[in-house]
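Structure tokens please, single chain.
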Amino acid sequence: MTDDRLDPVGHWTDPTAPDPLAELLPRRDPGRATRLLGVLNLTPDSFHDGGLDPTALASIERARLLVEEGADALDLGGESTRPDAKPVPAAEELARVLPVLHGVLPLGVPISVDTMKAPVAAAALEAGATWINDVTGLQHDPEIADVCAAAGAGLVLMHMRGTPRTMKNLTDYDDVVEETIRFLDHAVDRAVRAGVRDDRIVVDPGLGFAKSADHNLEILRRLPEYLRLGRPILVGASRKSFLARYDGQDSEDRLEGTLATTVLAVIGGASILRVHDVAANRKSVEVTEAVLRARLTPRVSTEATC
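Here you go.
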């Protein structure tokens, strides 16, 4: 995917270029190309915000704040997928998700539901969600593709090996980028054959899922290679444990490291960033995109600024 007018990531940052997410995830801010997906985990055990809200009303209020800070969409999760997390029955997952989903719909932004179960996906879409985020890339429950196809919904396909309880032992790769690209290419083909609209599929290399810290860094360094898939790329690096090497053992201390990954992801061609801290990430995105646009603009102002 090349264009003589653009640098390797210009396809996603040039305001005159086609917008692959125009229908699936409209821009709230016309001046910002990269979308921000605000994380809203409704679980007691997620690695950063698990148990943060004691009630559904508290989660709805937190969602309101994320939207006010600039979130283009919200990602609701009722089952933790952190390493060693235990599976949750579909009924319990829905009991966590549906009350909040109903409460956030008036905020007027698209809602994604993070689930690996087709019955949960179906109920969420019927309740008003617009896309499904499947961290298993259709491995756990392939019928998610059929559910999304029937609803005309968007579908995020992420790379993952094993389950949250086994994935940390499944990190043996010859080439982590090539192998995740092959996996995602197969998952996309599977979704398309099930009838998911071609323009409603997003891919996610799955930072932290069956990846070592070095694998995560390698993926970020080589992110432009995922553009070969011809799909918008979602990156979820926010406050993840691979940043602890540089930015603090506790997830509360990893904002600066997260912002560094945000800059790298935008430069690398990501279209969507899944983040906990919307306001800070929005500022990082805006500055990074401004630099990239300057590289695409033949005339640069000579007016002195400081």
